[in-house]
Each structure stands twice: as C-alpha cells, then as structure tokens.
Design a protein that fits this description.
This protein is of the alpha/beta class. The chain has twelve helices and twelve strands. The longest helix is centred in the first third of the chain and has 23 residues. The chain is globular.
Length: 350
C-alpha cells in the first residue's frame, strides 16, 4: 500500500529536531511492514528560529519527504497560515504523485492544518483519508466559533479518526461530536527494544523528562523532592529538558538548597504529550513511573504493577506518591515492566 503522511509541523529540520517525531516513527514502522510511504510537510519553519535557520545553512535532503523550506512570517494570522499550508500541501501532493505515484490513502496528523489539507485532497482526488489527533490544543479547548465548526467538519469527513489516548478520545467525542473514534497509541521508538531493563540500586534517582515550563509542573516536583531528601539523603532528582522555566527552576533549587541533589541535564535529542511517550519510554527501560492525573498516563499506568499515581498535581500529592514509591521500590518487576511495554507499543503492534 502507498501511504502519504501529512505532518502538521515542520518536519526534520535541524533547528527543531523534535517536531514530527510521531510521524517519523510511524513512517519507519510502515516502511518496515513493506508499505510505500511519502511524508508531506507543508508547514513553514518557525520565525522564532530564524537566527538558527540562517546560520545553519541549507538543510539536507530527506528521502521520501516533501518539505516547505520557507519561514512562516505570519504565525498568528490564522487565515494566512492555513491558506499557505493548504496551498503548499497541494503543490507537494502533486510533486509526490509525480515522484512516487498516486497514494492509496492519506493519513493526516492533527486537524489543524493537516486535516484541512487531507480533506481538500480527498475531495479533489477521490482518496480516503485517516486523521490521527494528538494535538494538546484540542485538549485545551482553545478553538471556538467558526474555526471550531470547520474542525468538526474535518473530523466528520475523515474515513477514520484516531486519538492517541482515551482521554483525548472523550474530549473529541464531547466537544467535537466525534462518535466513532479509535484509540491507537503512539509508537515506542525501536531503540528502546534492545535496552537492558535494569535493576534496583542502592540509591534512588527520580528522572523527569519534558519541556521546562509551567504546563509540565516541575516546580511542584522540586518542592516535593525537597521533602523527600531529609529521610532519603541519597536520593537524587534529574531534570531533562529545557524551556522558559529553566531559570526560575534553578532559583527554586538554590532557594531550597538542593544544588547537591538536583541536576539539570538540558535538552536531549528526543523529548516527546497528549499520549505520554516519555511514560512508555521509561516503562520500556524497566523503570516504574510516577504520574499525575493529566490525561494520557491513566491508560498506561497500572498502580503497583508498573508505577504509581499521585492523587493530584500539587507538591503534597507528588510528595506522597514519591514517599510511597520509596517504600515499595523493590517490589516492582522491572523485566516484566519492560517486556510488557515493548510488546504493547511496538511498531508492529501499533
């Protein structure tokens, strides 16, 4: 089968290597199953990254990928952004058909704006299209009025709609009227299939991976960890990632005198959360996960089996969950945790 994937984000550019990682994993999985795959990436590159784009020179060619190399100079003017996306996407589609042949199906990632383009292609060329939604903007319910009604029509026009978590599916059902929506998890990157599952150590290190911003709630985690440390002085906290809250988190660590126990590792090659890919990456490494109730992990974590849940998102809730983990940390079967995650979220399974 020949599949054309549509990325809602600029794909595979060096100034933003994390964008499009879900699509990248799906592309590689489909290729591994013997399908022909072409990626369309009509979104303009970020104006915020203009300096890095200019200094980085011309980005290299990616096999089986059509990209928009221009900068999006109107990121907050929705009708211009949408029009540019769809226009560029139609151009890429025609070029891809000439290079690879007519697709059997189009698979859009997110309604805005990949779904808008897929709907246009489907009507123009008589092709079926699938829409997978994993945009946090849908969860945040920011779309209103006529624009939201147009998103409703995109979902209604799709031959199949997929959500990457049960929580997202419920939001799409209740707020967008999507009555028939499948839940299909994101793919666990293949690199995790060969990692050792590890065992317990003499000390415990808590690792948090994600963008450092208020939405990720790391300040409450740091406050909770500060309460753990007096009883478990060997414990450590590692924050992986970067973002606008980096300086304020550093100040908080210094204020609480945690410099010896808390470290910042900065950004790594992949930080991927509508679904919770970081969660399954940890599980596939044999690591139990402590999660707050935030939508995605509820369908992944089995309390006492592969992790624990905090009752809420405040520092007291997180502290109680961390404290409980310290008491039961040796009871988790880390090999079983890794085996189950690798089986459930493998590319072939998804």
């Amino acid at each position: 089968m020949r599949v054309f994937l549509i990325s809602s984000e600029p794909y595979g550019f060096p100034e933003a290597p994390l964008l499009g990682v879900f699509q990248k994993d799906l592309k590689e999985a489909l290729l591994g199953e013997g399908h022909d795959v072409c990626m369309l990436s009509p979104a303009g590159r970020s104006l915020k990254k203009l300096g890095a784009i200019v200094s980085g020179g011309r980005s290299g060619h990616l096999e089986g990928v059509m990209r928009n190399r221009a900068v999006n100079f109107f990121p907050r003017v929705r009708f211009i952004e949408e029009s540019s996306f769809v226009s560029e996407g139609l151009r890429q589609f025609d070029a891809a058909v000439r290079a690879f042949g007519r697709p059997d199906i189009v698979h859009a990632h997110n309604a805005v704006y990949a779904g808008f383009l897929a709907k246009t292609i489907a009507l123009k060329h008589g092709l079926p299209f699938v829409l997978t939604e994993h945009s946090s903007w849908i969860l945040k319910k920011v779309y209103r009025g006529n624009f939201k009604r147009r998103i409703d029509k995109v979902y209604a026009a799709a031959d199949a709609v997929v959500a990457v978590s049960e929580h997202l599916r419920c939001v799409m059902r209740d707020d967008y009227g999507v009555s028939d929506c499948k839940v299909i998890a994101n793919i666990l990157p293949t690199v995790f299939s060969a990692l050792p599952s590890g065992g317990c150590r003499d000390h415990t290190t808590f690792i948090n991976v994600g963008s450092l911003d208020d939405n990720k709630n790391q300040s409450e985690l740091v406050k909770a960890f500060a309460r753990i440390l007096p009883d478990y002085p060997e414990a450590r906290l590692v924050l992986v990632g970067d973002g606008p809250a980096r300086n304020s988190l550093g100040s908080l660590v210094r204020t609480l005198r945690l410099e010896a126990a808390v470290s910042f590792r900065g950004r790594v090659t992949r930080l991927v959360e509508t679904f919770g890919v970081v969660v399954i990456e940890a599980l596939a490494s044999g690591l139990p996960v402590i999660a707050t109730p935030c939508g995605g992990p509820e369908a992944i974590i089995e309390p006492g089996i592969n992790g624990l849940f905090a009752q809420g998102t405040g520092s007291e809730d997180i502290y109680q969950a961390m404290l409980k983990f310290m008491r039961v940390r040796d009871t988790f079967d880390r090999k079983a945790i890794a085996d189950n995650a690798r089986r459930q979220y493998s590319p072939k399974e998804v």
